[in-house]
Each structure stands twice: as structure tokens, then as C-alpha cells.
Specification:
The structure holds 2 protein chains of 2 kinds. Helix content of chain A is 63%, strand content 8%. Chain A is built from 6 helices and 3 strands. Chain A has helices spanning 5-17, 19-31, 36-42, 47-59, 79-93, 97-108; strands at residues 34-35, 63-65, 74-77. Chain B folds into 2 domains: 6-112, Alpha-D-Glucose-1,6-Bisphosphate, Chain A, domain 4; 113-144, no CATH class. Chain B has helices at residues 17-25, 27-33, 115-122, 129-143; strands spanning 6-13, 37-40, 47-51, 57-66, 70-76, 87-97, 100-108. Chain B is elongated and about 75 Å long. Chain B is of the alpha+beta class. The chains are: A mainly alpha, B alpha+beta. Chain A binds chain B through residues 2-6, 8-9, 32-33, 61, 64, 76-81, 83-84, 86-94, 96-97, 99-100, 102-108, 112-115, and chain B through 1-5, 7, 9, 11, 13-16, 18-20, 22-23, 32-34, 77-81, 84, 86, 88, 100, 103, 105, 107, 110-113, 117-118, 120-124, 126, 128, 130.
């Protein structure tokens, strides 16, 4: 069974709520695929903790491990779940209240329009 | 389900539907309250755009034109990649009232997940930039 959008968005937001996982995802987003060792050299997080987070993120489907020899495995960010979360945020970020207030103000002005 | 797919608002306006209709469906009307600049080809399938002083531009496709009751359009979901086919549908419904017009706006489609994206989102094999770049490198290597 495939998880629904809600479940995917939840995985993304749960991952982003943790500062270490946020840092790892941000690093993969800005610098591209990296090994746990690469990440440990660039972030103030131990390699052990990074490996643990990467395992969690892989299970959650937010990163994917490229095939390779252990310790040389590179992790890559998956954009598809992020886009599902983005849709969730797009609904929250859609502001109809301000434009409708502006429309009401524009039309309710006594001199406006033809009506 | 908590994923917000639908947004709905209703507002009462002290002008008749014809006046509200003009504010929703003409470049002059739209630029007075919605965007800072606008253009519109008012027919189903017609294109329209709104531009804001912030630099943001919304590309709009007109879908329903039933003057002066229903005006519907689709537009891109903010934040998704430029080529993503998913669009939300916005529909304005104008209902005459004793005091003027009751205007309802409904935007739907935030939670949509077309087949292709469904597969991409859930079953791996993401063809992201990395794989595109990989293919480019392989191609350049092959022609070098």
C-alpha cells in the first residue's frame, strides 16, 4: 500500500523539526549527494549520529542510498516528498483574505464601479 | 484528512454582480485589487496573467466563463517546479443579494497527485537533477 499525501507530508515535517536532520537535508540540497563521512566533515554532528539520521531518513523515503560499498555509500535527497510537503505549504501560504479585503474595499467605495 | 486540498471564502459586497464580475474578469478590474498589473483573454482556454510589484507573476488559464455568475481559472501551485503540470482550480461564484452580491471563492487541488508523480513520490527512482546530470555526462563522454 502506498502512503497517502498526508503521511508523506508528515514524514517531511517530522524530519525538518529536528535540527540535525534539517542540517543534513539542507546540506544534501545545497551540495548534492554525499556520504555520511562527507557530511560529518562538514557539519557539527558526529558521524555516528549522521549515520543514524540517514538511516531514518532513508526509511522515511526522504533520502535514497546509492548502491555502493559500505562507508562509501552516497545519500541523495529525494525531491518528490518535498514537493508533496510544498503543496501542503502552498495551501497554507495561499492568502485569499487580503485580496478579498482589497476587492471589498475597492468595490464598496461609494464612487467606485458602475453599480 | 488534514491535508488542505480546498480553500473557501465568502464575502458580501455592496455592488451588483455585474460590477463584481467586471472586477474579476477584466485587466482593469484585476489590477485594481488583485495583482498590480494584469491581462486577460476572457474565454475558456484563454490565458491571463497577473504581476505583482514584488516581482511575482501568476500565469492563469481561464476555464469557466458564465457571465455574471461563474468565473473559473487554473494556475500553477506556488513552489512546485516550473514544468510541474499540477494546477489548482479557482472558482468565483457570484450570487445576487438584496444588498449587492455574495461572492464565494473556492480553490481546490492542493492535494492532487497525478499518476506519474504518485509513482515518483512513493516508489523511488527519482529522476532528479542528479540523474539528468548523470545522463548529460554520459552523453558528453560518448561524443567526446
Amino acid at each position: 500500500m502506498v502512503p497517502d499525501s498526508e503521511a508523506v507530508a508528515e514524514q517531511v515535517f517530522a524530519a525538518l523539526a529536528d535540527p540535525s536532520r534539517r542540517a543534513i537535508l539542507a546540506e544534501l540540497a545545497s551540495e548534492g549527494p554525499a556520504t555520511a563521512t562527507d557530511l560529518a566533515s562538514r557539519l557539527p554532528i558526529t558521524r555516528q549520529a549522521i549515520a543514524k539520521h540517514l538511516a531514518l531518513l532513508t526509511v522515511a523515503g526522504l533520502v535514497t542510498a546509492e548502491p555502493g560499498e559500505r562507508r562509501r555509500v552516497r545519500y541523495r535527497l529525494r525531491s518528490a516528498p518535498m514537493q508533496v510537503a510544498q503543496q501542503f505549504l502552498a495551501a497554507l501560504a495561499r492568502d485569499w483574505d487580503s485580496p478579498l479585503d482589497a476587492l471589498k474595499e475597492h468595490l464598496d467605495r461609494p464612487a467606485s464601479g458602475s453599480g | 484528512m488534514a491535508f488542505p486540498d480546498r480553500i473557501e471564502r465568502t464575502v458580501d459586497i455592496s455592488k451588483p454582480p455585474a460590477t463584481v464580475w467586471a472586477a474579476l474578469t477584466t485587466a482593469e478590474g484585476l489590477s485594481a485589487w488583485f495583482g498590480n498589473e494584469a491581462a486577460i483573454d476572457l474565454r475558456p482556454g484563454g490565458s491571463a496573467w497577473m504581476r505583482w510589484d514584488s516581482g511575482h507573476t501568476a500565469d492563469v488559464r481561464v476555464e469557466r466563463v458564465e457571465e455574471p455568475r461563474v468565473f473559473g481559472f487554473t494556475w500553477h501551485i506556488f513552489g512546485l517546479p516550473e514544468g510541474d503540470p499540477r494546477r489548482t482550480y479557482v472558482e468565483f461564484t457570484l450570487e445576487p443579494t438584496a444588498a449587492g452580491t455574495r461572492l464565494r471563492v473556492v480553490e481546490t487541488g492542493f492535494a492532487q497527485l497525478p499518476e506519474d508523480d504518485h509513482r515518483r513520490a512513493f516508489e523511488g527512482n527519482t529522476r532528479g537533477w542528479e540523474s539528468e546530470l548523470g545522463e548529460l555526462v554520459a552523453y558528453l563522454d560518448s561524443v567526446a
